Hints:
Layout: E1 5-10, H1 21-27, E2 33-38, H2 43-55, E3 59-63, H3 77-84, E4 90-99, H4 106-123, E5 127-132, H5 135-145, E6 149-151, H6 158-166, E7 170-173, H7 183-191, E8 197-199, H8 221-232, H9 236-250, H10 253-256
Parallel strand pairs: 1-2, 2-3, 3-4, 4-5, 5-6, 6-7, 7-8
Helix pairs in contact: 4-5, 8-9
Amino acid sequence: MLTNIFDAHCHYDDEWFNEDREELLKSLPECGVSGVVCNAVDLKSAEVIKGYAEKYPYIYFTAGFHPENLENIPSDYKEQIAKYLKHKKCVAIGEIGLDYHWDIPKDLQNRIFEEQLALSKELDVPVVIHDREAHGDTMALLRKYKPKGLMHCFSGSVELMHEVMRLGMSISLGGVVTFKNARHSVECAKEVPVERLLLETDAPYMSPVPKRGKRNDSRNIVYVAEKIAEVRGMEAQELLKITEENAKKLYNIDNKA
Length: 257
Ligand code: NI
């Protein structure tokens, strides 16, 4: 059995887990999962996943506003995020970023993203970045702020990946690397410096082959690790150990809990 599975980004508060969430979360450590970072999309989800982090030693959480959740954002949202970050298991501001796939006002998205990047610098905490069909504007703000953190479910080219590396950030890869049409992701998986690579599920979405289309959970990271290890010419277990270390370092975990 493969161990040292660290899921750098997921959403266990999703209603898809309502039926068996507790059973599943209880069982993950027995399946080789050593760490999980549940990501918030707004304050309500931050509160829910804080509860999981308080109940399960291996679970950590983030606080932040996802670009799809900006309707009715409270005026004091930054203070509220800052309050969560005082919690010893709140490890980043996330997930934040830009999403131009949906028809959400770009000026609002950019303003809230920029304010959260500024907050991360002020508090000296990492960020978890969501960038969907918005590489240009996302990179412009990352160049401006140079935050610590990771680009989750990285979907850019190798050139863009190298630029992310020059900014000092990391990328995390998930189920997409196992898809047939995932040329960019596989190239990035091969080329990225191994110390800047994290693994994630984005559960409940993005299940890797052979589970594609089904509900995803942290155990499925083994398929992602096997695929990436294969293209890099290494053992999956070795890759899991390295990416676990990378995640702990990026999220400052051994110092936090
Ligand atoms: Ni996500």
